[in-house]
Amino acid sequence: MMIRRAILLMTLGAAGLGVVLAWPRPPAMSAEPMALPSAAVVKAARSDLAQTITLSAELKPFFEADIHAKVAGYLQAINYDIGDRVKKGDVIAKLDIVELKDDINRTKAAFEQASLDYHRLLDVVKAKPGLVAQAEVDKAHAEYDIAKANLDHAQTLYDYTTITAPFDGVITQRFADPGAMIQASISSSTQSMPLVHLADTATLRLRFPVPEASVPMVHVGTPCAVVVGATGLKINAQVTREADRVDSATRTMMTEVDIPNPEGRIVPGMYAAATLTLQQKKNVLALPVQAVSQDEQPTVLVVDSSGTISERPVQVGIATPDRVEITSGLKEGDEVIFGSRAAFAVGMKVSPKLVSEQSANRAAEKS
């Protein structure tokens, strides 16, 4: 009996030892420290910044006008057609008005008679003073002046039958053909048919509305980079004139830039993109826009020399599409978290990885 109990105890002891030996052991503690999370950072650096605004604009002729007749008559001849270029003073059209020719002949005859009568009296007065009353001489002089005025008036009306170009330009529209009855446009140009439409395209007006917020920074001489979409032509110009008034309906100010077009490569009516340089600053402290919060009080996450993150408020100046000026809160060379802040917190330790300026600019273009 004693022998059986001893055997049983030995068996149970061996089983217990096997369980203890088979139980998994806790892993050994590593002697190496845990790796810190990496963080993309950029350095506050100095650069030249320019704040710009790009606006859609339309190209207009420098001068343009519907050319009307000042007197009514039949169109005898029209010398130019669409696309023809004319110089100031060139005869565009000629009207046939027989009545005006008759008026010239009648008033000319009356003037010649009045002139003859007046000068005869003057000869008599010189030869025999006192023979002719001064009242008769004065009356003859007045009739002479009236006849001359009537002749000048008739000649002026007849001159209106010749329609000339008021400025250099190109005929962009033609509205009448020979034989057409042309109405006088003295009272209203909307009730009379124009002969042609004339446009000066040697210099074009680039017209665009500037938003109210940008008006204080737009003046005569403000740099303007122009890209004509249809031709791809790029032109560096300046603001030539601005209305100096904000339209109450659109809250914009009309602005113009003169665009030289001596070769006629640009056609009026084309659209262009006008980029105005509102502000320029050189050698200012700046950061990529992705490194600065967009809150009412902008802040940045600064990584110090030990890799610890701290949040710091900053004051910002002008902003470009990819960079923003830092006027206070940072010094040159400070490293700042670049991009999303979601994975970082104040007091957290990170391993900073410097992002190149080219990479930062590419990221700004994509965002």
Please give a structural write-up:
The protein is α+β, with helices and mostly antiparallel strands. It folds into four domains: 38-49 and 283-366, conserved putative lor/sdh protein from methanococcus maripaludis s2 fold (Beta Barrel), CATH 2.40.420; 54-62 and 200-280, Elongation Factor Tu (Ef-tu), domain 3 (Beta Barrel), CATH 2.40.30.170; 69-90 and 165-194, no CATH class; 98-160, Helix hairpin bin (Helix Hairpins), CATH 1.10.287.470. It contains four helices and 20 strands. The strands form three sheets. Strands 2, 4, 7, 9, 10, 11, 12, 13, 14, 17 and 18 form an eleven-stranded antiparallel sheet that branches. The chain is elongated. The protein starts with a helix and ends with a helix.
N/C terminus separation: 89 Å
**Strands, count:** 20
For the record, the count of structural domains works out to 4
Order of helices and strands: HEEEEEHHEEEEEEEEEEEEEEEH
Ranges where pLDDT stays below 50 over 5 or more residues in a row are 11-23
Q: Whole-number average pLDDT?
A: 88
Q: How does the helix and strand content classify structurally?
A: alpha+beta
Rg from Cα: 45 Å
Question: According to CATH, what is the topology of the largest domain?
Answer: conserved putative lor/sdh protein from methanococcus maripaludis s2 fold
Overall, the morphology is: elongated
Largest sheet: 11 strands, antiparallel
Question: Helix amount, in percent?
Answer: 10-25%
Number of helices: 4
Query: Do you know the CATH architecture of the largest domain?
Result: Beta Barrel
Strand content is 35-45%
